Amino acid sequence: MAKQNSNGLILFFVDGLGIGERKPENPFYALGGPDPLCHFVDGNRGLDLEGNVAATDACLGVEGRPQSASGQTTIYTGINAPKELGYHKQGFPNESLRRIIEEHSIFRQLKNAGVDDLIFANTYTPKFFERKPRWKSATTCAVEAAGMPFCSIRDLLGRRSLFHDFTNRTLIKAGHNVPEFTPRDGAEILAGLCREYSFVLYEHFITDKIGHDMDWERAKTHLPELAELIRETLQSIDLEYTTFVLTSDHGNIEDLSIRNHTRNKVPTVVWGRKKEVFASRISSLADITPAILDLLT
Predict the structure, then answer these.
(1) pLDDT tens across 34-54, in order?
(2) How confident is the model at residue 32 (pLDDT cuts 50, 70, 90)?
(3) Is 151 exposed, middle or buried (0-12, 13-18, 19+ CB in 10 A)?
(4) What is the spatial distance between Cα 235 and Cα 176, in angstroms, rounded to a whole number?
(5) Spatial contact of 117 and 3, defined as CB atoms under 8 Å apart
(6) Are 25 and 18 in contact (CB under 8 A)?
(7) Which ranges of the chain would DSSP assign to H, the alpha helix?
(8) Sign of the four-CA dihedral 273, 36, 143, 251
């Protein structure tokens, strides 16, 4: 069943990761060291494993600070959602954004193109399945638009999905009977999914919370673990056949002097198969889905 000799792509989404300045307010500068998350407006420093970086416009020609709902909708559809709305939408998609996702979901587009071995790797807790969610993320809407199943705690226990907190510490704190994972555990799970599926999407949100909370202490402990997860995943997949794409919806954590999102460009970093071609196509968030479709179809 493994797809080791087939081409595939993993999209690794990190919420609130911008390209910042070399100043003390930027934890990537303050903490120092080469890091796959560490990018500066005057050029990256010590980028691991020879990734190609595309500085990516998250403002999309619309006034104001980029926001999660419209930015993520843009990433997962290829449609400039803020331009369609006329503003940046925070939080969760409204009806207009849900209509865009329903029609243009990346999962739906890939399925229509004949690529049906797809997975959204994030674990959903039982609360999601027990009642219809009042609020749905752009990704939840995108998965539903393609009629795909969601991963559950059972999948996590079987090492076939990964919670957005890849250590499982928040799940354990909430009373779930799950083991604590190391970054290496998370990497093994993601690498295993890459060998089985042509398209894997994984999302991580703690970075945005750290930015909003201006939480230096958590940044010091969390960012090295997240960087390790990315490095370990890159070392565990076959980059001859697999493309690894890291991107974000807006800036935030790169400036812990403010609670708000930034207007900074975000890094889209590409490793592996056809990394130069893919990165060369990316100038805004709206370019990501079309580039994925061209690479996989």
Answers:
(1) 688 888 898 765 455 678 999
(2) confident
(3) buried
(4) 30
(5) yes
(6) no
(7) 27-31, 68-75, 81-85, 95-104, 106-112, 126-130, 138-145, 153-157, 169-173, 183-196, 206-213, 216-236, 275-280, 288-296
(8) negative
pLDDT digits (tens, 9 = 90+) for 4-26: 558 999 999 999 999 999 999 99
Distance separating alpha carbons of residues 220 and 222, to the nearest angstrom: 6
Region 249-275: what's the mean pLDDT?
96
pLDDT, residue 38, reads 87
CB 225 within 8 A of CB 207: no
- Tens of pLDDT, residue by residue over 90-110, are 999 999 999 999 999 999 999
Euclidean distance between CA atoms 83 and 63, whole angstroms: 10
For tokens 């590409």, name the residue: 270
Backbone angles phi, psi at 49, to 5 degrees: 60, 30
Supply 282's token pair: 């990316």
Start-to-end CA span in the chain (Å): 20
Strand ranges across the sheet with 242-247: 52-56, 266-272, 242-247, 8-14, 199-204, 118-120
Burial call 33-52: b when 16+ CB within 10 Å, e when fewer: eebbbbbbeeebeebbeebb
Amino acid residing at 89: K
Number of CB atoms found within 10 A of residue 14's CB: 24
Mean pLDDT for 68-93 is 97
Distance from C-alpha of 135 to C-alpha of 188, rounded to nearest angstrom: 31
Return the biggest CA–CA distance within the chain: 49
Length of the chain, in residues: 297
Instruction: Please report which confidence band the pLDDT of residue 263 belongs to, taking 50, 70 and 90 as the band edges.
Output: very high
Residues contacting 221, CB < 8 A, separation 6+: none
Q: What pLDDT, on a 0 to 100 scale, did the predictor assign at position 44?
A: 61
